[in-house]
Amino acid sequence: xxxxxxxxxxxxxxxxxxxxxxxxxxxxxxxxxxxxxxxxxxxxxxxxxxxxxxxxxxxxxxxxxxxxxxxxxxxxxxxxxxxxxxxxxxxxxxxxxxxxxxxxxxxxxxxxxxxxxxxxxxxxxxxxxxxxxxxxxxxxxxxxxxxxxxxxxxxxxxxxxxxxxxxxxxxxxxxxxxxxxxxxxxxxxxxxxxxxxxxxxxxxxxxxxxxxxxxxxxxxxxxxxxxxxxxxxxxxxxxxxxxxxxxxx
Length: 249
Description:
- It contains 9 helices and 6 strands; from the N terminus they run H-H-H-H-H-H-H-E-H-E-E-E-E-E-H.
- By secondary structure, the protein is an alpha+beta fold.
């Protein structure tokens, strides 16, 4: 089948491991191939379900202390093989618990960026990418009233290369937000808006500088809201749309 070569790239695409040119090519293919789009969407949904399940339990400091106390033993006269194996197992268990807790805190920001990328991919793969279809910001903005607990402004696009396609209600770690879809030179860009206090991690303005992401992305906070602009368009286009939103805010 013609799509077989594309289907082998589904998993690295969803995980953000494809090179930039292959990612852009896959986007173009997915827009014209319902089968690959459906497969990509299914993989994103599975990935997000696993992420949610993984957050159901995170070892607390109290739990780690209790485990340490349970495995700490006073020096004994006999150092048999059984005692040594038990001690080694205890050490590995404690190290694993402490490492898990450390990595969980360390990767909280990375997890936010990963979920934003997943939301963008899911939108591209969806047969109904927007809930409200309109190129008029005065139609799209009021649609969100009563659906999310905050208000935001949309920029005027006259004289720019961007076209508003519509918007949809979205969620990030159970926090409701707005997703706006824009088109520029046949590339789709998502703009996400969430309340800063509702996000699972705090991001500073330099957080993206050292990140290798499958899409161009910008993020900033203003007026208690956190904005994400993400897409396979050029970094210059992402930056320009971000500037338009900052000016509108």
